[in-house]
Every structure is written in C-alpha cells, then in structure tokens.
Amino acid sequence: MTGQEGDRSARDAAEQAARQSYGKLVAFLAQRLRDVAAAEDALSDAFAAALTDWPRQGVPDRPEAWLLTVARRKAIDTVRRRRSGEQAVDQLRLLAEELAEGGAEAGDAEIPDHRLALIFACAHPAIDERIRAPLILQSVLGFDAATIASAFLVAPTAMAQRLVRAKAKIREAHIPFRVPDRAEMHERLEPVLDAIYAAFSEGWSDPAGTETRRRNLADEAIWLGRLAAELLPDEPEALGLLALMLFAEARRCARRNEAGEYMPLAEQDSGLWDARLIDEAETLLLRASRLGAVGRYQLEAAVQSAHVARRLTGATDWAAIARLYGALLALTGSPVVAINHAVATAEAKGPAAGLALLEAAAADARLKEYQPYWAARAELLARMGEAAGAAEAYELAIGLESDPAVRRFLQQRRAAL
Amino acid sequence: MKYMLLIYGNEREWQGLPQSETGQRMAAYRAYSEALTKAGALVAGDRLQHTHTATTVRVEGGKTQVLNGPYAETREQLGGYYIVEAADLDAALSWAARCPGASHGAIEVRPIWTM
Predict the structure, then answer these.
(1) Kind and range of the H or E element at A391?
(2) CA-to-CA distance for B66 and A76, rounded, in angstroms?
(3) What is the mean pLDDT of chain A?
(4) Quick one: chain B helix, strand, coil %, rounded to 5?
(5) B5: left (phi over 0), alpha (psi -120 to 50) or beta
C-alpha cells in the first residue's frame, strides 16, 4: 500500500468509525466522566490521533475499542490537569481501573450502548427547553454548532454559547446519565420525544428539500426516533412519535408538484407517497395502540394514518380525522390543534361548523400572527361565499408566510375568489 | 455531591396564617429534617429571620456601605435553606420536591462549588 492509499483508507476507517460509533463513544465516556464536553474533547483528540497513527500502523482490528482507549487516556490527562480534590481522584481511579483491565471491553466484548442515557441527560427538565434538541444533535450525532445553528435559525456564536452553557450545567449540577425508571419514565420521556420531534420539524420545514443540512436533520431525527423505539419498545409514545415521523417522511416528495408548487395534503398525488414507510408507520401505530396508553404522538400519527388511508379508499374520512383532532385538543389544549380540528370539522360538517370552532380558537391571541389560522379562516369564509372577508384573511395569511411556494398558493386562492 | 436547597416563600403569607397552620408547617419541616437525617443526607439547614431584619453590606472604593434591608426586594423571599448530600441532581431534586417549602413557595437547587 502506498503512503497515500494508507492515508486514505485510514481516513475512511476513522470517518466510518466516527459515523457509526460517535454517539456511542461519547455516551460511554460522558457517563464515566459525568461530563459531555470532556467526553467530546477526549474523543476528538482520539480521532485526531487515529488519523496520524492508522496510516502508519494500519487500521486496528477494532477501531471503536482503539478510539475508546485513546480517548480514555486523554480524559485522564485532562482530569489530572484541570481538577483536583476528591471528585477528580474518584474519576481518575475509575478510568485507570478500566484501562488496567486491559480494557475488558477493548477485547471482544461490545462497548455498552449508553446513548439513551445520554439523550435523557440532554433532555433533562433542568436543561433549557430550547437547547435540548441541539444538545442531542451535537452529543449523540456529532453535528457541529454552526450546522445546528443554521438549522434552528440561530446565530452560530449564540448557539455555541448555549451548548457550552448546557454542558457546563450537566457537569456542574451532576445531571445523571441514566434511563429513568418506570415510575418517572412518563414524565421524563416527554421532553426527550419533544426534542427529537423538534429536530424533525426543523428538517421538515424545508419542504423543497433544497437545503441539504435541514434534510439531514429530518433523517437524523428519524434515526433517533428509531433508536428510542428500539430501546424502549414498550413505550407507546416512543412508537407513536416514530410512526408520526415516518408518515410525514412518506409524503415528503408529494408536498410539491413538478413545477415546485405547494400541494395541500388533500390534493397530493397519493401515488407519490412512500408505501413502505407508510406500512412501517401503520405497524408501529398498531403496536403502540395495543400498549393501552394513548398520547399526543399516537393521536397525531393516527391523524396521518387516516389521511393516507385515502390511497386505498380514494376518499378521506374527515369525520374520523375531526374526532382524532378533538381528542388531541382535549389532551394538549394547543391552539394549533384547535385550527386543525376546525378545518377537519368543516370538511365533515360544513364550513359554518368549522368557522364556529375557528372563532372560538381565535380567543388565543397567539393565533393572530399564525399563518395557518388566517389561511383556514379565508378558506372557510370563501366556501360560505363571503368573498370580502375571505380576501382580507388571505391577505393576512400571505403577509405572514415565509415560504414562497406557499405564498404563491395563497395568492392563487385569493385571486380565484 | 452537595446541593443547597434555597427555600423561597411569601413572608407576608406566613405572617397572616392562623397559629394552627403555622404549627402544622413547622411540624412538617421537623419531619422533613428528620427524614433527611435518617437518610444520612442532611449536612446543614436553618430557618432565617424575616427580611425586615436583613442588612446588606458592600465595600466600594474602600468604603463600607451598610444598607437596611435585603439585597433584592422580591415577591417571594429567601426564608431558609438546607444543604443536602445527594448522588446527583435527580436525587437533590427529589429531596427538594419533598421539602414543605416546595408546596407553598419554591425551592432553588444549587450545587455547592467543590474546590
């Protein structure tokens, strides 16, 4: 092998190890060190070492174990340098013992998977809600702060600062790296699922799929959702969230027609939907429903399921969708759900019934700046023949929309009045 | 790992309570302190006199300024504290949730700086 080829294969091996095991290695180290930032630092040193060492020595048989051993040594150095006192002594002893064991794990045993414990630490209620999803993306998936910042529309320096602050809190307040027990699971799972869904929504909000960074975010969120569903197979909401994301992902391509125009769900070509993803989502939702504890994500997934049933029956069961939104509204009290409930009711029982619900929902002042509220109001007024009111509502909806394709769609509707 | 539980509550509300009620609250605190002791988690804990007894001191340019009153006027006031030994934040939070003060005020949980 020439030096250059060796270089490349070492780089490939390091990159592959990084992709496959980054989160696992961070999770393992973070739990030992009780420190996410220190784990990330040690690991990035280990990857750097791999890039100089592997081309010369060849790629080790077990790259993960090699990286972990080097990262541990780096971590010991850092702990020794930075900290003193009882705590540091304990940590050093722990790390040194593990190394002395010749890395029982560095032999044949698998490195234990603590990623879920890491995710629970990142989405701990003591961590600022807005930073939970970014923190998970960084520590479990290795996204850099700049990429995360651009996906969440936050200035990179601000995002980097918030991430540093959150990791400092994990370290200094001793936020534990553990999967909560059964009694706490319900309360603690919710912020984890919410963080995963927030990551997915950021990715999903780029419908044209032109921004690859966001596109990746939706994929990565689904990957996290799969991880959660796999590691918590008896948690109906974890299954419900994965089902919801898969239903949405299945319709990704159908959200725009060939000309790049926005296609509302009811007008989408169901032939463009990904049947394999829909089947998987249906199976998950069925499994979740057998666990006997309904929740927000299962209900939202059930709405999606009712929508995609059109590909088999040719018609949408709006009455069923309205009932599901009604249950979701009772559960969450969300004004966004209230709008969807009103729209589904209008389809099932006529525009007047929908408009009455919409007006009741408008008591929530936040809706005044929410595009879908005005779009729904415009649509219902138009159906009732109130062109002037509809035009006014369309005007506001257009003004509040940021996606050009959706804006064009709304302008066409307004022109057709 | 040591944490300080800072107990915030409305002093005025305390003062306005009938005696039977304050007696009950005091008993709840005694029971809580006892539970902490039994668990080997109690490091320290005290109730503070009301904020009207507070004096704030600051040295500026070598000159000592003494001001009557608490450092900050707040709707709820620091009325006491516990220092507890806990394995991690979750354990500390679960002690905080059981503190009687959590039901009529709020408990701020702060890790103690380890030197």
Answers:
(1) helix A387-400
(2) 48
(3) 86
(4) 35, 35, 25
(5) beta
- Contact list in A for residue B2 (CB cut-off 8 A) is none
**What is the pLDDT, as a whole number, of residue A334?**
87
Sort out which chain B residues have CB atoms less than 8 A from A85's CB and list them. Answer: 114-115
The first and second tokens of residue A234, run together, are: 């008896």
3-state DSSP assignment of residue A228: helix
Q: What is the pLDDT of residues A11-61, one digit of tens each?
A: 777 777 666 788 889 999 999 888 999 999 999 999 889 888 888 888 888
Shortest CA distance to A228 belongs to which of A169, A188, A183, A273? A188
Residue A208 confidence (pLDDT) above 60: no
Q: Are A356 and A340 in contact (CB under 8 A)?
A: no
Mean pLDDT of A381-410: 91
Which pLDDT score is estimated for A412? 92
C-alpha dist (Å) from residue A378 to A265, A387, A394, A409, B72: 17, 9, 5, 13, 51
Find the chain B residues whose C-beta atoms sit closer than 8 A to any C-beta of A.
1, 87-90, 92-93, 109, 111, 114-115
Q: Is A183 on the interface with B (CB under 8 A)?
A: no
What does the alpha-carbon distance between residue A350 and residue A339 come to, in Å, rounded to a whole number?
15
Identity of the residue in B90, B109, B111 whose CB atom sits nearest the CB atom of A176? B90
Q: How much is the ipTM here?
A: 0.77
With CA atoms as reference, report the closest residue to A199 among A186, A212, A184, A216: A216
Taking contacts as CB-CB distances below 8 angstroms, the residues of chain A near B85 are none
Does residue A101 register a pLDDT over 70? no
User: What pLDDT sits at residue A91?
Assistant: 67
The 10 Å CB-count burial string (b at 16+, else e) for A210-223 is: eeeebbbbbebbbe
**Contact yes or no for A172 and B111 at CB 8 A:** yes
Residues A304 and A282: their CA atoms lie apart, in Å, by 10
